[in-house]
Every structure is written in structure tokens, then in C-alpha cells.
Amino acid sequence: MVTATFCYRALLLVLFFVGFLALTTAVSVLIRNKLPDGLELNVHCQSGDDDLGEHVIPNKESYDWSFTTGPFSRVHVTVENDLGMLGSDHLVLKAHCRSKDDDLGVRNLPPHASFKFSFRPHVIFKTVFTCDFDWPNNVHHQFDIYNYDRDDCRNCSWIITPNTPCMHNFDRQNVKCHPWKK
After folding, report:
1. What does pTM read for this prediction?
2. What is the C-alpha to C-alpha distance for residues 71 and 59, in angstroms, rounded to an integer?
């Protein structure tokens, strides 16, 4: 015998998956070789998660693939030291980044060095990664390097300058600087 509670839970589960499917986006990619004189096109397609390998596309032919994106796609974050110099000394950036669930540890970044991390954002609890940044002369700042409510990128690249952190959003092809949290 099926109870009303079981039917209600089953209906909620179905609605959740239908809603999830509505949030995903199917993406199709087509690369067509239109090079002159019968030249072959060599391509190597990869993302942060997948490597489709190298392909040789003969003249006038194409290569295609598809994938889906959605709320459970991985986010890739890069943090780069662009502090510059203090007198004749290059400034090393000390970065300590963490979320509610993960502590990425302390990183010491020489000038123009970077570190990367990736994760799957939590759509209900809204993932936030906060970083403490320190550099010589007792300078300390804090900033949310990723905030689910603010950031709409899947490839977020941050440049840390003495005045402000700036994000290059590769998905939207723009740069936006933000004030320090403290």
C-alpha cells in the first residue's frame, strides 16, 4: 500500500530533478576547417575537467562535441600576486584561503606567481571562499575571493594589487575591481 507521504516525497524528488534539468545548459561546439589550399587544422581541446586530446581536422571537414553546464559545474579560481615592489624589494604575497568546508592552507607567492584551486559550488548553502592576504610592512587585508551570490564565473582569475583585488571573468570577458573586505 502506497502512503500519501511516500507519494508526496516522490513528487518532490521528481520536481527537484525536473528543476535541476531546467538549470543545466547544453552546449554544442563545432570547429570547421576553412583553411586555404587544403591545409589540415590541428586542435587540442581541453578544459579544467576534461582533455579531449589532439585532433587533426582535414580541410573542409569539422570536429564537434557537446557538454552540459549547470549549478554543479566546477569553478576554477586563480589568485596572482601583482603587488609590485617596495623600494628595491619584490613583495611576496602570503595568501590563506578557506571556505566553511575547506582550508587551502597558506601560500607564499613571489611576484607574478599564482595558485589555482577548483571546487563545485554549493547552490543551497552558497559557497564562499575567504582569503587573508599579508605582505611586508604589516599589511593585512581580507577578501571573499569567491562568493556564490556575487560571482557568475566558472573561470575566475584574480589579480591582487596593493590597492584592490581585481577579477578577470573569462566567461564574460571583463575585469572588475572590488574593495577589500577589511
Report:
1. 0.62
2. 38
